[in-house]
Design a protein that fits this description.
Number of domains: 1
Radius of gyration: 18 Å
Order of helices and strands: HEEHHEEHH
Shape: globular
Strand content: 5-15%
Structural class: alpha+beta
Largest sheet: 4 strands, antiparallel
Helix content: 55-70%
Number of helices: 5
Length: about 160
């Protein structure tokens, strides 16, 4: 892939997200006991070690092998798409998504489950526990949505337009 050098900011963003994700997950596994919450901002923001064996929000479909293969394939296609588009903002956002996807993939391959620890909610209602990779995937996805919504049309270069 000769175009790889033309997208350094996106791959740097992916690497930063991956590094932050893995550092925070390691810290959570070492500092927390499974399922025992620690208040950070009262009961609104807590850190609670949990393990996700399923997909997003612990939806149990496919199992860890299927989810690992699916995520690896998604990462492959994401990188190929990043190489084809020219919009720097979109590529950067996709790099953030890639970093999050790889962060959760590393957990699935290494442990067969994803480490989650960020726990938010009010009174008796709690959002499903999540991690830095999940934040990156969501923020990157929302940003891409708004970038595409504001664009007149998405253009992927073809061999004819590259000449």
């Amino acid at each position: 892939m000769k175009q790889l050098k033309s997208k350094p900011a996106a791959f740097t963003a992916a690497a930063v997200v991956l590094l932050l994700d893995q550092i925070t997950k390691i810290a959570a596994r070492h500092a927390l006991m499974d399922g025992i919450p620690r208040d950070v901002l009262g009961s609104f923001l807590r850190i609670t070690l949990r393990y996700n064996y399923g997909a997003a929000f612990s939806l149990g479909w496919g199992g860890p092998v299927f989810l690992s293969v699916f995520t690896a394939a998604a990462c492959f296609f994401l990188v190929r798409y990043m190489m084809k588009i020219g919009d720097r903002k979109q590529v950067l956002c996709l790099g953030v998504i890639l970093g999050g996807a790889v962060g959760n993939l590393v957990d699935r391959i290494a442990m067969g489950k994803v480490t989650d620890f960020i726990d938010i909610g009010l009174t008796g209602w709690r959002w499903p526990t999540f991690n830095v990779a999940d934040i990156a995937i969501c923020i990157g996805g929302i940003a891409v949505f708004f970038l595409l919504k504001g664009a007149k049309r998405l253009e992927v270069p073809t061999k004819e337009t590259e000449k």
